[in-house]
Design brief:
Elements lengths: L8 H7 L4 E6 L23 H14 L5 E6 L8 H18 L3 E7 L7 H9 L4 E6 L4 H6 L9 H13 L5 E8 L4 H15 L5 E7 L16 H12 L11 E2 L4 E3 L13 E3 L5 E3 L1 H4 L4 H5 L2 H5 L1 H5 L14 E5 L3 H4 L12
Bound molecules: iron/sulfur cluster (SF4).
Iron/sulfur cluster binds next to loops.
């Protein structure tokens, strides 16, 4: 596995673009779950109203200079304070509309338990249209490692929320993060097959595999992580089961051909499937597999530019730049009564 930085020069340059703002907001550090591998201490509660106003004022002060704003919601569980999420997102959206800023986006890292359809609808209306949800297994497997704080299971509600999004017409995208190493591989494989069955062919859903790691926390002494060749091989085996599901994005050409790369349009290896008029996505898993080598090998070059691996030559990145100016606003600042030194908030 390479240790080179993931970001390209272009992405790094974009990350400090003065006319883009990316706020990562923790509206609460509380969570309704108690995952067995969680590193959070849940000491801090909701963001104070004064700080919520501060976030909105920050946007108001910067808006005239901005070309785009993106919000990322993190926690704890951000939807445990969904009133704050709505309040800030709707405020930012109003300001963007007033000032003609068309590039607004938002993403939630959520456990999915409170992501019912009414919530999805309101998030979409405020241009918060993507979420990442972690799954450890089906039913009892997920319930064991991702229980509610009360100790009850969480799987059924999360899964029902996902099925409801699938059945809806909301333009809301969900990235399913499948944890590897929490459960027996056979159980993770069953989850992958079911995700493939239920969400395969729906371009709003994507999935990726992540080895569980020990990031500390109350259970740090009992967390067993799968690493090295054994971990990489498990990820590679499981990735083969997700044949119909999007692995972080597909390219749909004007004639319905489905590929992975916007540059290699003349290369037949870049046609891995087809999208038909009913919205059904068919993918040839043998043709898709080489494009997933970065996932299997956890190679940052191949993840940034899978075509480099497909053509077997030098790994020249053609990935689009990503990332914008980042200011993290955790609610713990309420205890200090101010923003941390070193941020540019006060100077803008
Ligand atoms: S969902 Fe689980 S891992 Fe995430 S903050 Fe809550 S307890 Fe921790």
């Amino acid at each position: 596995m390479t240790t080179k930085p993931f970001l390209s020069k272009a992405a790094l340059s974009h990350a400090i673009h003065p006319r883009a703002m990316h706020l990562i907001l923790l509206p609460t550090e509380q969570c309704n779950f108690r995952c067995t591998y969680c590193y959070e201490d849940f000491d801090i509660g909701r963001m104070r109203p004064e700080l919520v106003r501060g976030v909105k004022t920050l946007v108001d002060r910067r808006i005239d200079d901005l070309l785009g704003i993106s919000l990322s919601w993190f926690g704890g569980e951000p939807l445990a304070a969904k009133d704050i999420v709505f309040d800030v997102a709707e405020h930012v959206q109003r300001r963007c509309q007033e000032r003609g800023v068309t590039n607004l986006g938002g993403h939630l890292t959520t456990n999915g338990y409170l992501l019912d359809l009414a919530t999805v609808e309101r998030l979409c209306a405020a241009e918060q249209r993507t979420a990442q949800i972690s799954l450890d297994g089906l039913g009892a497997v997920h319930d064991r490692s991702r229980p509610l704080a009360s100790g009850r299971g969480s799987f059924r509600r999360v899964w029902d929320n996902l099925l409801a999004i699938r059945a809806s017409r909301h333009d809301f995208r969900v990235s399913l993060r499948i944890h590897v190493g929490v459960a027996e591989e056979a159980e993770t494989a069953e989850l992958c097959r079911e995700i493939n069955r239920q969400f395969g062919g729906d371009p709003r859903f994507s999935a990726y595999l992540r080895l569980i790691a020990n990031w500390g926390g109350a259970n740090r002494d009992s967390i067993k992580s799968l690493s090295g060749p054994a971990g990489r091989e498990a990820v590679a085996r499981l990735a083969r089961l997700l044949t119909d599901i999007d692995h972080n994005g597909v390219l749909v050409r004007a004639d319905g051909r489905v590929g992975r790369c916007t540059v290699a349009l003349d290369d037949p290896r870049n046609t891995v499937g087809h999208l038909d008029e009913s919205g059904r996505l068919r993918v040839d898993s043998d043709k898709l597999r080489p494009w997933l080598a970065g996932l299997a090998e956890l190679d940052s070059d191949l993840l940034a530019c899978p075509y480099g691996g497909v053509r077997g030559g030098p790994k020249t990145s053609v990935a689009p730049a990503a990332g914008v100016q980042t200011i993290v606003l955790p609610p713990r600042w309420r205890a200090r009564g101010d923003l941390p030194a070193g941020t540019t908030v006060g100077a803008t």
